[in-house]
Amino acid sequence: MTDPIRFEPIDLPPPPATRPWIYGNVIASANGVVTWQRTGPQDDPIAAIAGGDFTRPGRLADLRLMRQLRAAADAVAFGAQTVRDQPDLIGAADDVGGELGAALVRHRAEHGRPRVPLQVVYTESGALDLGVPMFNTPDVRVVVVTTETGARQLRARGSEARGATLLVAGEIHVDSHGLVQAHERLFADHGVRHLDCEGGVVMLDALHAAGLLDELFVTVTDVEIDPSAHESIRHITPLTAAARLVAEARLPTDPGYRFQRWRFA
């Protein structure tokens, strides 16, 4: 089945004066569920929310949108739990391959960006597996936003030898002030003007609480998730309730998927 969506650059506003323009990207069920506490490797919230059919035109369009958002970014960010749940994860724009992957590489080169965006990981504890590909792939740069406690743990396990840069944003906890300072350093020291945060929702909530989350791209599927069937269900509605809907689209070939763009004040 062919994805009918063509590649077009994402139009993003210019960043504020001292920090990146930060946008989130999530997939949500029809009743707003975005994740839950996994019971094991086979308990994949994204697969369930997508309906389990990764050949649907809507799902293919969602995957393409994810890569377009990555291609527009100087950095792609993840919470530590996302990295633990997906140990092979690297936030590259061209991992889809084919003509789309080549177009995304050309787009980044034309805008003076490296093939792979800077990878940003948030962790208070420093409990990251430094053996995963993100920390061991040539030309992939990683910045870890953490605490003094987390930094000590990471240095003791060889983060510097793997080229990871540590930004300390608190002693034991990363609070809103620490997050603001960390993103100001990403802006000033690493040239990050646009940052794509792929979650999880805990991280998006923290960015919003710090006044850093500027907009949110939400793909809404037609799948209803039973909240009683999972532990620690998280919804996207607390975030969208604080934003205004600025755009919404559907595919003629798969109207069950809705693509929404929300903007914060």
Helix content: 25-40%
Provide the CATH architecture of the domain at 21-29 and 60-215 and 236-241. Answer: 3-Layer(aba) Sandwich
Number of continuous helical runs: 8
Identify the CATH class of the domain at 21-29 and 60-215 and 236-241: Alpha Beta
- The number of strands is 11
Q: On the 0-100 scale, what is the average pLDDT?
A: 93
Kindly report the name of the CATH homologous superfamily of the domain at 21-29 and 60-215 and 236-241. Answer: Dihydrofolate Reductase, subunit A
| Rounded radius of gyration (Å) | 18 Å
Quaternary state of the chains: single chain
Order of strands in the sheet with most strands? 6-5-4-3-7-1-8-11-10
CATH topology of the domain at 21-29 and 60-215 and 236-241: Dihydrofolate Reductase, subunit A
